[in-house]
Write a structure and sequence with these properties.
Elements (H helix, E strand, L loop, with lengths): L3 H12 L8 H16 L8 H17 L3 H30 L4 E5 L6 E5 L4 E5 L6 E5 L1
Antiparallel strand pairs: 1-2, 3-4
Helix pairs in contact: 2-3
Bound molecules: zinc ion.
Length: about 140
């Protein structure tokens, strides 16, 4: 711990005192920059590497920023925009994980995703959101 890397780690921790550090938005920026960097290998799209570099630089500036209020506002705006896609990805992941035990379908009344256990025959399902009643084969 007291070797070269331990001392560097302590110095870096001291330097990062009072700075913003990473958050969801900066992680998102790094991920997008990485995807753009991969895409820039396609012939004709080489300018994307500069966009990627700009995103990485912006992410680094955000991490080292001492203006915590502004960074929190940016992150809150990002979280607000990303909430719905994150929820949809979470639902898709859950559908995939439970595909053998649960059957998913959409309510015809309100569009809510409903689920019934598989292999229980024909079930009467009442939507908890709009009370629409349907019969589903599970
Ligand atoms: Zn419904």
């Amino acid at each position: 711990m007291n070797g070269f890397f331990g001392r560097m780690q302590m110095r870096l921790a001291g330097w990062m005192q009072g700075r913003h550090g990473t958050d969801g938005f900066s992680n998102f920026l790094v991920a997008v920059a990485f995807v753009l960097l991969i895409l820039s290998m396609v012939p004709g799209l080489d300018l994307l590497s500069w966009v990627s570099l700009a995103l990485l630089a912006y992410s680094l500036v955000r991490c080292c920023s001492k203006n915590l209020a502004a960074r929190e506002r940016e992150n809150a705006a990002y979280e607000r925009i990303a909430a719905k896609p994150k929820r949809q990805v979470g639902l898709l992941r859950k559908k995939w994980e439970n595909r053998k035990t649960t059957r998913y379908f959409t309510c015809k009344g309100c569009g809510q995703t409903l689920s019934v256990p598989r292999g229980k025959g024909t079930l009467r399902v009442v939507c908890p959101k709009c009370q629409t009643e349907t019969t589903k084969k599970s």
